[in-house]
Amino acid sequence: MFEKILIANRGEIALRVLRACRELGIQTVAVHSTADADAMHVKLADESVCIGPPAAKDSYLSIPSIVSACEITGADAVHPGYGFLSENAKFAEILGEHGIKFIGPSPENIRTMGDKIEAKRTAKALGIPVVPGSEGGVADVAQARKVGKEIGYPVIIKATAGGGGRGMKVANNESELELAVSTAQSEAKAAFGNGEVYIEKYLQKPRHIEIQVLGDGQGRAVHLGERDCSLQRRHQKVWEEAFSPALNVEQRSAIGDRVAKAMCDLKYEGVGTIEFLYEKGEFYFIEMNTRLQVEHPVTEMITGLDLVQEQIRVASGAALLYKQSDIQFAGHAIECRINAENAQTFAPSPGKVDAVHFPGGLGVRIDSALYSGYRIPPYYDSLIGKLIVFGKTRAECMMRLKRSLSEFVIEGVDTTIPLFQRLLNEADIIDGNYDIHWLEKFLARTAK
22 catalytic, yes or no? Predict the structure, then answer.
C-alpha cells in the first residue's frame, strides 16, 4: 500500500479523496493555487504545497509543478480526482518516469478512450453496441453528406477530442449540414486545439445511461450497476440516480455483464464509466470516462463500496477483491449537483459564504468543501457540493430528497437548490419519465 498520496485536485473531490486516504491510514498532500490557500482540503491534509497562481493552467494543470510537489513531499502516488489532469495520458506517463504511481488506468487505456473515434472503434471490437455513424473523422462536407445519407437524418457532429458539449452541433437535414460541420470544427479547434469531427445518428428522445466498472489491470473486472444521468443542461449533468427508472433487472444485468467482459479483455485498471444513449430498448456507446465520476457516490450508496479506496487498492497492485456475484445492489439513490449559480439564469455566483447548514439524517450524504466564511473563487467550476440521498425505494428516496433540500442552507451566494425543489414537484420527475432533452425544455417553458 502507498505511504503518501498527493491529491492533484481541489474542492469537494479533493476532500473526498483525502477522507478515503485517512481511512486507509495513508498520509496526504494537498496542492493548491494561491486562490485556494484557505480551502478545506488544504486545512485537513497532512502537508500542503502551493503550486501556482489562480489560473488552472498555471497551477492544477501544471504538470511540472505537481511533479515537483511530489518530489518535495516524497509522495509515492497521485490521485487526480476528476477533471484537470485526470484523463491526461502524458501526465500518467511522466509520473511513471519519476517513479510515482498514477492512481488510474494505464496511459494506453487513457489515450485510446480519450480519442472518441478510437474509443468507438475499440468499443465495437470489444462487443459493446455503438451509435451508427462515420467510421472515423470526416474531412469535409462532401464526406459528411455521404455519411448523412447512409445513416439518415438528423445527425450530430461531434469533436473528436470534445467534452462538456463543446464542438457538438445537430443537423436535421442536408441543408443544415455544412454550417453544422464548420461550426463544430471551429468550436473544437478553439476549445481543444483539434478541429477534427465525426458524425453519428442523432437519437430523438434517448436517456443517458452509464455503467460503472472496476478492474484490477490483471484481467479481472466487475460492473457496479448503472446510473441514469438524463437530466442535463447544455450537456452538463444536473441530477443522477441509480437505478434508472427506465431499466429492469434483466436489461441491467445484460449490459453490465457485456461491459464487464469488455473491461476484462481490455485489462482495465481502476474505476471507469461506459456511457450510453438508451432508446427503445437499445444501448448505444458514446464514450468512456477513464476516471472517477462526479456522480460516483450514487453507486457507492447502492453497493456499499468505497470507489476511491478501491481505486487506491488496485493501483497499489492488489487483485480485485470481488467476483460479479459478490456485488449486491440495494435501494435507490439520487444525487443533486449544487452549483454556485443563479437557479433561474445560471449565472455564476462566486463570493463569500456567510452561513452553511447541511441536512442530515438517515440516508443523507453531503460531499462538499464549503464552510461558513469560505470565499468561493471565480476561477473554477461552479460545483460547490453534492447532495446524495438513499432510500429503500425510489419513492422513499424522493421524499427524503425533498426533506433534505428544505433543510439545506447556503447564505451569501446564489445556488441551484431552488431548481431541485421545483423539479420535485414535476409529475415527469416523480414518475421517472424524462430524457436528455427534458430539463432544457422545462427551463425554456418556465423561464420568467
Answer: no
